[in-house]
Design brief:
Layout: H1 16-25, H2 29-36, H3 40-48, H4 53-72, E1 91-94, H5 101-112, E2 119-123, H6 130-138, E3 141-144, H7 150-171, E4 175-178, H8 193-200, H9 207-212, E5 216-219, H10 229-242, H11 251-267
Parallel strand pairs: 1-4, 1-5, 2-3, 2-4
Helix pairs in contact: 1-3, 1-6, 2-3, 4-11
């Protein structure tokens, strides 16, 4: 089905089988398999077996998260879901500590209490490799633009605002978004006012009603050990020393792929 949001939306159900086939056929599979110490073909077949969103999220990813929690945590708690109506879609606005885990843990919690998973924002700077793009779009992640001219940035923010309102008010699915662009590096969680302005761009006739119909819910996530603490510390140090920090080409992508491979190596689950 074609919509005005085909350029940013996640995959539809009929697009998932082809996406998992592409993931299984990806040239990164041998490297991941070698890192895991498992046969590449076994890894390919595990991915090829996934044909639906349910098999991906409630099968593979749920198993990943549960094994991760079992091996790396002594306690995992959440609170506040008694205030959530399972029949209503919400806009979850979260602090941001880890590129993948923040939203992944929310997805897991929602499934644990019998609610539907939400769609997730995914920065365009991270979508530079076909495998990562397919992985994200199979996992209900939608594209958010980074950079561009002021006009391009404005247009992309309007487009995303319209899409999120469409998902919440018409598709009746929840959405997860970080409260700011990029992860918090210094531990200070403060919502970027531009994010709130973006929420209302898609309906300006009544700002109060515009925000109210999105059912905004704040989400706070914390880790006993700060996620990627060494990398964040280095970035803060170089920023203070040089007055700025310039990411190397592919730095975000490498962080994601490295994190995924390290996680899979830890789990030894495939």
């Amino acid at each position: 089905m074609t919509t005005n949001f085909d350029d940013i939306r996640p995959f539809n159900a009929d697009e998932i089988p082809a996406a998992t086939q592409r993931m299984a056929d990806s040239e990164v599979i041998p490297a991941i398999a070698q890192y895991l110490g498992v046969p590449a073909e076994a890894l390919r077949e595990r991915i090829r077996s996934i044909k639906t969103l349910k098999e991906f999220q409630l099968g593979l990813l749920k198993e990943v998260i549960e094994t991760l929690l079992k091996k790396t945590t002594t306690q995992f708690d959440w609170a506040g879901l008694e205030n959530i109506d399972e029949k209503k879609p919400y806009l979850f606005v979260s602090n941001h500590r880890d590129i993948v885990l923040d939203a992944m843990f929310l997805q897991y919690i929602l499934t644990e209490v019998g609610q539907n998973t939400c769609q997730i924002t995914f920065g365009s700077n991270l979508m530079s490799h076909p495998f990562v793009i397919d992985f994200g779009k199979v996992n209900k992640m939608f594209r958010t633009e980074r950079g561009g001219s002021p006009k391009e940035f404005y247009n992309s923010m309007m487009h995303m605002s319209e899409y999120m309102r469409h998902v919440i008010t018409e598709v009746h699915e929840s959405v997860w978004i970080a409260q700011r662009n990029g992860r918090t590096k210094n531990g200070i969680d403060a919502t970027d006012p531009a994010i709130i302005k973006m929420f209302g761009m898609s309906r300006r006739d009544d700002r109060v009603v515009s925000l109210a119909e999105l059912n905004i819910v704040p989400v706070a996530v914390s880790y006993e050990w700060e996620s990627c603490d060494k990398l964040k510390t280095l970035e803060l140090y170089l920023t203070k020393k040089n007055g700025h920090y310039e990411k190397k080409p592919g730095e975000d992508l490498n962080s994601i792929l490295t994190g995924i491979m390290q996680l899979l190596r830890l789990l030894k689950m495939i």
